[in-house]
Amino acid sequence: MKKIAILAATVLSLSYSTASLAQTWSVDKAHSRFGFGVTHLSISEIDGNFKNFEATINASKPDFSDATFDISAEMASINTDIEQRDAHLKSPDFLDAEKYPTLTFKSTSFKKVSGKNYKLTGNLTLHGVTKPVTIDVVINGPITHPQSQKSVAGFKFTGKIKRSDFGIATAMPASALGEELLLMGNAEFAKN
Description:
Lipocalin, 14% helix, 56% strand
């Protein structure tokens, strides 16, 4: 019985120490952008971004191979630099920002492919629908910021989803609006 108690205490101690080593990294919004691209009339690419977003990374390994990502964006902050188009995108014809105010992504795995290249898998909730997605990520850094002296790292995100999978503008033909939405992000994170 004593051996079982010692073993249980050791396992709990190891679990606690591993969890306590995790570091939180917060997004530097001044040096970050999360957005999208879509083909218009099969001839041009229209892109935009979300002005209001949050993102954090938790990782205990220096190469981020055990990282978890938590990203969200406000649908009402969509920006394509054309006010009339932005208003239409927020409407029930597209994103229905009033009914579905937030996009969220919560990672389930982050695996190193080679060098600085990773595959990020997680659950994307958009337009009231949650689906698993996989995103390519390239990491730059970490380095020590010359002014703040904090550890900082850069992450470039790219992935694709189908708008019909999320019930977005399902009545619109692909010849008018591309079926594939490109997800894009360039973000700097600083260790807290």
